[in-house]
Amino acid sequence: MSTVLVIVIIIAVIAVAFGVWTFFDKRRTQRLRTQFGSEYDRMVEASGRRQAETELERRARRVQKFVIRSLNQEEQARFADAWRREQAHFVDDPRNAVENADRLVGEVMRARGYPVGEFELRAADLSVDHPRVIENYRIAHEIAGRDSRGEATTEDLRRAMVCYRALFEDLLEGHAVEHDEVRR
């Protein structure tokens, strides 16, 4: 075999390998963008595409190990009643209602099977199965933080309640996620 032919074969193999790698890389990006929605964009903006995709896949593997379950009708009714009380309480004491809304979201998370630790880890875990409402959770948490420093207005607190409600409803009505089926 001539040297030229060997070089051509090596170049062809490299080109095919690069094409295959590019194809699978684009599929990975599309899958993660579809699964995580705006959380994907937020992560890419914060840390770049490669690092963001690695982190999002790590999150998905972590959450896949959880035993996430649907709430039974009794639990759903109990949590829905508690939420209605907090919404009604907002008129008289918005700050306390926002604090209680955050606590109630944590209770629903715990009941569904999500671990409830520090905020960033909770948000990361929820972003896997609830990507459409995770931005609401981040907004509500940020407002609650500003409120604890005395920097939030009543309108800010109203927005926090609306954001918490979106996540709460998604968690309350959500069905158990079959991680093996969703991730493959």
Describe this structure in words.
With 184 residues, the chain is an all-alpha fold. The protein folds into two domains: 3-64; 73-183, no CATH class. The chain contains nine helices and no strands. It has helices at residues 3-36, 38-47, 49-64, 73-90, 94-112, 119-129, 134-148, 154-173, 179-183. Helix 4 (73-90) packs antiparallel against helix 5 (94-112). The radius of gyration is 22 Å and the shape is elongated. The two termini are 44 Å apart. The model is unreliable at 175-184 (pLDDT under 50).
Keywords:
9 helices, mainly alpha, 184 residues, disordered C terminus
Write the layout of secondary structure elements.
Elements lengths: L2 H34 L1 H10 L1 H16 L8 H18 L3 H19 L6 H11 L4 H15 L5 H20 L5 H5 L1
Helix pairs in contact: 1-2, 2-3, 3-6, 4-5, 4-8, 5-7, 5-8, 6-7, 7-8
Overall helicity: over 70%
Name the poorly predicted regions.
Answer: 175-184
Shape: elongated
- Tell me the strand percentage band: under 5%
Overall mean pLDDT stands at 88
Number of discrete domains: 2
Sum this structure up briefly.
The protein has 184 residues and is an all-alpha fold. It contains 9 helices and no strands.
